[in-house]
Every structure is written in C-alpha cells, then in structure tokens.
Amino acid sequence: TSNTSTAFSSVTHICRDVNYGWLIRYLHANGASMFFVCLFMHVGRGIYYGSYTYMETWNIGIILLFAVMATAFMGYVLPWGQMSFWGATVITNLLSAIPYIGTNLVEWIWGGFSVDKATLTRFFAFHFILPFIIAALAMVHLLFLHETGSNNPTGINSDT
After folding, report:
1. Phi first, then psi: what are they for 79, rounded to 5°?
2. I need a labelling partner for 143 at 20 to 30 A (CA). Which of 4, 69, 86, 101 fits?
3. Is the dihedral of CA 136, 91, 113, 101 positive or negative?
4. Distance of alpha carbon 91 from alpha carbon 123, whole angstroms
5. Domain segments of the chain: what residues?
6. Are 109 and 96 in contact (CB under 8 A)?
7. What is the pTM of this model?
C-alpha cells in the first residue's frame, strides 16, 4: 500500500503470511534485475553493431531505458524500509544539481519539502502506470525498427 505507516508491514505480511508470497516478491524483484541484464546486453549489442545510426529507433530505445529505470527505482522505494527511504532521498536530491529549477523540481517530485507520504503515493501510482507507458513505447520502438530495418551484422542481404 502507499501508506508510510503500513508499507513495510504490508511487504512483510506478503512474504510471511501469504502462500508463496515470498516467491512472488523475489520473482518480481529478481525478474526486474534479469530484465536489466537483458536490457543492458541489448544496448551493448546496439552500440557494438552501430545501431545508434538509426536515430529515431535509438532515441525511443533510450527513452525506454530511462522509463524502465524510473519504474525500477520507484519499485525499490515502495517497501519503505531504511534503504528505500534514503535511496529515495539521495537519488531524488541528485536532481537539485540542475541549475535554476533543481530545488523546485525535487520539491515537486516529493510533493512537499521531504520524502514523505505524498512521495510514496506518487511513486506507487507511477510504478503501476509506467509499465503500460513502457509497453506503448516498446510498440513505437518496434514500429520504428520495422520502418528502418534491423542492423544486419552478418552483411548478408536479407532481402533474398
């Protein structure tokens, strides 16, 4: 739940009291890590084979990467333990380094002057909504890939 007083106990309840809740939680967390492994291999392959020359497809892919990173970060904050709280505080405070708007941007993301209930509620909502946006962006990424064609590292003409 997105309540600061019950978030941690809610996760504890799922892990201890719900049948196979611990499995669902760890599959969710470790599945996200494995997704990042695949994502980084995909980006590395794109860099190695020069796929960045297809600018539209590459840029949509980079936007996808940042959206997935944002979703993972917000999911990391949701259990609301000490690491979650301080992770949210430190990472969001990095935005305060942006000249002129940084401090206001951080306060806007927090929904106040510190990481609190409003922040957790926003992160909960965005952690739910962003995967749908990511799915739509993935379709756009594939559409651009279909239009430009895939990078062919073998050099063999695929039209024959």
Report:
1. -65, -20
2. 69
3. negative
4. 13
5. 7-148
6. no
7. 0.90
